[in-house]
């Protein structure tokens, strides 16, 4: 098991908490078509917060639960910085959690 799993799992919970606190968490999933996007961050069918909730968090949970290899790199903070450029204060906690996630993924095993 990758030693980063525990820290990453903690940050995934922090990301979810931030989405909920900001009111960006949704009870109803997007359509199957929207979730099937092959574009990076599903930019053609989902808002970034939807992508975090419905694509990113479930994929990372699966990786951790099944002890699969972690990605070699993550640039999720750069996307968040662009998306939330007009809401820097409101998104500060979420972006901090995403920054730490990027750092953890980038650490050499």
Question: How would you characterize this protein structure?
Answer:
With 109 residues, the protein is mostly helical. The protein has a single domain (5-106), classed as Up-down Bundle (de novo design (two linked rop proteins)), CATH 1.20.1440. The chain has five helices and no strands. The model has no long low-confidence stretch (mean pLDDT 95).
Give me the secondary-structure topology:
Blueprint: H1 5-21, H2 32-35, H3 48-65, H4 76-83, H5 92-106
Helix pairs in contact: 1-3, 1-5, 4-5
Describe the structure concisely:
The chain is built from 5 helices and no strands.
Give the tags:
mainly alpha; UCP006257; 109 residues; YqcC-like_sf; YqcC-like_dom; de novo design (two linked rop proteins); Pseudouridine synthase
